[in-house]
């Protein structure tokens, strides 16, 4: 059953000049007034409901309030109206960015075809409930490791460009610029403005963070705000923003000015600064301090080098004052005489060994000559060889016709055996 059928089924009589919406056709359409009336009558049956959300707009006109309420976990929104008769019964400090619960009843205005909710009661959401939810989220993120020191990045010593996310023309922006430029006049900034509270805080900050993190010239990003009560700092505990900061490749400094209560951004950022001024001091080195440090190091180096040179000169003078270096000639002369004696002894020993070796060589040469076959051949003897070089020692080894080689003192001749010759008696 449709909305219109349900309304008609309740017993309303259709106007005489219009067809009921459920009976309408192209030839017999219903009227706009009949359609709007049907919708109004159906919606009028809805009961009052309590709804929780964040006020994203709050406009007062003629004593009445026309506002919008946004779901804190999505982009869903509704229009609400607070009549002047109800305003006296709700807190007077309500405004954009407040987290509230409201008793609302659906209403449909027939003349304008406008659907909205009328508020009969509204109050702030208890801060304790919000903080409890934040603590649960904090515990979950800690368990995931997003707060671990091991994943936090080191800040550069001297950033070339500092990315700054803050409110436009805010005191936080002025504090960061003033203190950073006092410490290092040549410091450069790329600033992206964002709402620092209310409905636009999270989407604006996410967009600014994406732009700065994608810029290769930006070396560090500061997210700064000049403090506030826990209610106005809720945007900096939004899970989407916290996870985006954890995933950023550029080091991020949280500079939300506050004391006791701190948003989740502080826990996940690479560095937490207590105020925007503190952030500037911790991100940018002081040029005066650095110059003083350089002068101090230079003075220490000069003193250290001077002391080392003085020590080495004293050591050298001490060595030069020793007798061996003051008058080295006697020592050299004594060593020269000793060297000459050693050389003489060496020559005598070598000569004696050479003479002995020469005599021994002569003796061996004479023995070798006496045993050599060449000496025998020189006296007229010869050596007979069979084929294959075998020396003939027995006449029976060379029967008649055997080829022989006769080696003489000078050369060799070929011969052939006539057989063994009988010995004469």
Automatic annotation (TrEMBL):
Pfam families in alphabetical order: Exonuc_VII_L, tRNA_anti_2
Single Gene Ontology BP annotation: DNA catabolic process
Residues in Exonuclease VII large subunit C-terminal domain copies: 146-365
Leader peptide range in chain numbering: none
Residue ranges, compositional bias (Low complexity): 1-18
Cellular compartment(s): Cytoplasm
CDD domains from the UniProt entry: ExoVII_LU_OBF (cd04489)
Catalytic activity: Exonucleolytic cleavage in either 5'- to 3'- or 3'- to 5'-direction to yield nucleoside 5'-phosphates
Residue span, OB-fold nucleic acid binding domain: 31-122
GO molecular function: exodeoxyribonuclease VII activity; nucleic acid binding
Subunit structure: Heterooligomer composed of large and small subunits.
Described purpose of this protein according to its UniProt entry: Bidirectionally degrades single-stranded DNA into large acid-insoluble oligonucleotides, which are then degraded further into small acid-soluble oligonucleotides.
Similarity field: Belongs to the XseA family.
Protein name: Exodeoxyribonuclease 7 large subunit
Organism, scientific name: Microbacterium saperdae
Lineage of origin: Bacteria, Bacillati, Actinomycetota, Actinomycetes, Micrococcales
Protein encoded by which gene: xseA
